[in-house]
Amino acid sequence: MHSPLVLRRLARDPWALCGAALLGLVVIGALGSMWWTPADPFHGSLSESLRAPSSSHLLGTDQQGRDLFARILYGARLSLSVGLVSQGIALALGLVLGLAAGYRGRWVDAAVMRLADITLAFPPLLLLVAVAAAVRPSLPVVLVVIGVVGWAGMARITRGQVLVVRSLDYVHAARALGASDRRIVLGHVLPNVLGPVAVAATLGVGAAIMAEAALSFVGLGAQPPIPSWGAMVAEGRDLLRAAPWVSLFPGLAIGVVVLGVNLLGDGLQDALDPRALRARIS
Fold first, then answer.
1. pLDDT of residue 3
2. Rounded CA gap, 170 and 78, in Å?
3. pTM above the 0.90 mark?
4. Distance from the Cα of residue 256 to its chain's centroid
5. Domain architecture of the chain: domains with CATH
6. What distance in Å separates the CA atoms of residue 40 and residue 227, rounded to the nearest whole number?
7. Which residues have C-beta within 8 Å of that of residue 19, sequence separation ≥ 6?
8. DSSP 3-state assignment of 258?
9. How many other CB atoms sit within 10 Å of the CB of residue 251?
10. N or C: which terminal CB in the chain sees fewer CB atoms within 10 Å?
């Protein structure tokens, strides 16, 4: 599938454009926070504690008088980094192991798939909490844990696509002409399995952001004073009556970025399958 054609199909999908717009706003805020924030996201004044949203603090302040808008902007950098890096890890592991399982078959296939079955047998959040609790909580640990836990789904998708592609005529023709396994995999198999895997990775970014928020909510993610949306929601859970904005706005930020990722991922899936796009628009 050529990239310009996929982009044109994405441009015809209003929901994908909506998702891209939501993500664009979050990305702009995250990048902008590298140079400017309306206040210090790490420190505040107790005299400004639990101030309601106003012209001086657009989204209010938390218990320590820190500006919530500044902290949410800074937290966007963390959430997007976790989503992209962890899915990069999951994608790399899933592609390599899925290609090996699908192309080599036999004992390689059996070993990789049984390992994937073991990984998928545990509820993802429970497995994340167990692994994160076994080591000292930190941001690098969260990145690696989410990426490693997510490899199994990527490997299954890759393996399924490889099993289809390796049986096609042009692969048999390349093998008959004496092409090496490496050339067949890199030149013929891999380009034809990237589409579905890219869709899964895109949707996985939203799931990774949710996983990081859940880990931070229970204290196993990024540690204070680093602003994390999940930790910010947890900080305000006892103040829902007196100061609901402390939890409300970080929760909305999580919802917006995950919604944007999912809409864009669905649009990408439809762009790679024009029949689904036509049915969706009609």
1. 65
2. 44
3. no
4. 13
5. 75-281 (1.10.3720.10)
6. 11
7. 259, 260, 261, 262, 263, 264, 265, 266, 267
8. helix
9. 16
10. C
